[in-house]
Specification:
By secondary structure, the protein is mainly α. Helices cover about 70% and strands about 0% of the residues. It has helices at about 5-15, 20-60, 70-135, 140-150, 160-170, 205-220, 220-230.
Amino acid sequence: MFNKDNINKFYKQFNKHKPFNYTLIGILLIFGSIQVQRFVQEIRLEPVKISLVNTLNSNSISIPNDLESYPLDQQILMLEEIIKARNDIDTIHTLIAREEAYKKSKEFKRQESIKREKERLKREKAELEADIKRVQSLIIDFKHKDMMNRVGIPQNEQPFAYYIILRESAWKTNAGSINAGYGLCQSSPGKKMSSSGSDWKTNPITQLKWCNGYALNKYGSWKEAYVFWRNNLSF
């Protein structure tokens, strides 16, 4: 920029090189113009720098100690890069936090699902045990108890056999259809019971023998047969 020293220097050069007066004037004018442009640029950029510095300070971000040793435009670029890098880091931290929150939420839901499933199984187990006790407490008349004794159904299994047959056929040997579910246990078709005797159509003992073999072979016991029947309403 123009100052007293520059003017004196110009005056000396002007007197010393008179043939080049206009050239020197042009050079000084260009030099002065550049200086003016730089001054204007500094005036324009200084608020930008102040704003960036304030942004860094408000976010507790350190400013390089040697920042002032760089031209103003470079200072601004440096500050912008620092803010961009910090924003990138904040973005990464936000994404990580979201991912962690998602994982925690997912794990919480999984644990809740496991908890609900355990509670459901516990509840169903309690209900089953209550139903088993209720069936075991049934009073069986002499006629049906004698029939079950004759085919070898154990005493502790008889309540379950009695209950299933009661619900399947009401202990009627001719219940249902021969070609579909038929007899005490609703054998489908009824002819399956012929393996226990030729009088399978009318003899309750023959039908009960077949029922007993079917229950033991398929479920292992009448109690387990009852558990299946309870859940599926079929034998």
